[in-house]
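Batch manifest, entry 17 of 40.
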Amino acid sequence: METIDYTLLIQTVPEVSKKDGSVYTCTVGYSPQKGWIRVYPMPYNKGLKRWNTYRINVEKNKQDSRAESWKLSSYSRHEQWKNFNQDVQLVGSIREADRKYMKALMLNNTMQAISQLNKDRRSIGFLYVLKAHAYWDVNESYVNPHQLLLFQDIQEDYDPYTKQDKQFHSRINFQDQDGTHNLMLNNWQYYMAQINFGHKPEAFRYINNDPQILMLGNMFSYRNTWIVLESFRQPHNSLLL
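Output type: structure tokens
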């Protein structure tokens, strides 16, 4: 067990655990002690916020051999996250200068292509792209909640915050040295935008204009399959560290 500071940047769309049926999210962020890491499973309904720094006790996830993967050391998950606020202590929200510093760290760690991430056996990585286009696509796994009302046994397993509840999901097109990619953009903030504003293109207004730093993560079961976790706007005149 290790105690680290962890600045949360990403929460993925909540999923249902195949192991115990609980709903959880995967988080990705930066730790001065560990670098860029993922910490999961984490609850989606305990007020975790982007750019907040938390002090947490973590250990390696024995079921996930990826170097960047960690989990909480506590048993709160097995107690329906009863003592989560004690296990995850808020340090505070980082300053704007620290946010710019983290983006500079991303830029300094960008690769030229996804194939480089595979070669280096990364499971979290960054690409710098001059142009990206994010958009809404039809969610083929969408489950209509009104139809579920007809089937009580299915209704009991249904959770309104998972991918199945959204009619559309976000995707992103971009080019690297390997060629053109069309990947899932798996970030909960865009799914929540559907609830608040509908599936409007304005959700991607900070992506479809300037050059971008793409944060990517690979799939647990398919290590050469990648999804985009977030796209950070990067002006042309940004300086490296």
